Amino acid sequence: MEDIFNWVLHNLVGRIDRPLKFRLILQPAVAIFFSTRAGLQDAREKRDPYFWAIFTEPRQRGKLIREGWHAVMKIFILAVLMDLIYQYLVLGWLYPVAALFVAFMLAFVPYLMIRGTVNSRGAGEIAHG
User: Fold this and answer.
1) What is the pTM (predicted TM-score) of this model?
2) Spatial contact of 87 and 23, defined as CB atoms under 8 Å apart
3) How many domains is the chain partitioned into structurally?
C-alpha cells in the first residue's frame, strides 16, 4: 500500500514541472467555476449544501449524485484525456487507473468542496439545526 501511495504522490507532485502542467490549475479552476455557479443556484433555491445533502437526504441522494456527475462530467473526461496524453508523452506508457485518480482529484474533489461552501444557507442551517 505504501508503494502505491509513494508512486501516486511522486507522479502527482512530479507533474508540476513537466509538460501540460497548466492542466493542474485549469481543471480545478473550471470545476470551481461550475461548483460556484451550482452553489449559488442552491442558495437561491434554499437547498441544503450539496455534499451535506448527499449524506442527509437519502431520497435525494441518487438525484444529487447524477446532478453533480452531469455538472462535472465534461471536466472529468477532459482531465482523463489530458492525463493520458501527459502519461504517453512523459512516461511513455498509459496508466488508466492513475488517470482516473488524477481526474477525480482535479475535477470531483474541488467540485464537492466548493459547491456546498458557496451555498451560504448551509452554514447557518447546520449551526442552528
Assistant:
1) 0.72
2) no
3) 1
